[in-house]
Amino acid sequence: MLNYQPCLADPDLWMRDAEDKNGKEYYKYVLLYVDDCLVIGENARDQIYQIDKYFPIKPSSIGSPSIYLGAKIGNMKLNDGTNS
Rounded to 10 degrees, what is the CA torsion of 6, 12, 16, 22? Predict the structure, then answer.
């Protein structure tokens, strides 16, 4: 199906290994809690649309997150100049 595995330490965290466009290996994450869903990884929007095939997501809720579980979140610039 989506090939995510639950994290043993936190059943609300699902992960799967992936490879970025440069061939570097990393993990994609899906964090689920009640009606909140946060996807972390390269091409996260594509992952959301794959999840939407099995679990409908409101189109208005798809986009860059600004809040998750009551905490404000967003991108940050790392010391090497990349955005995370």
Answer: -160
Q: How far apart are CA 10 and CA 24, in angstroms?
A: 25
The domain limits of the chain are 5-72
The whole model's pTM is what?
0.76
- 23-56: pLDDT as tens digits: 999 999 999 888 888 899 998 889 999 989 988 8
Report the 10 Å Cβ neighbour count for 31: 17
Distances (CA, A) of 21 to 18, 75, 81: 10, 20, 19
Distance CA 13, CA 21 (A): 24
Q: Which residues contact 48 (CB under 8 A, 6 or more apart)?
A: 37, 39, 57, 62
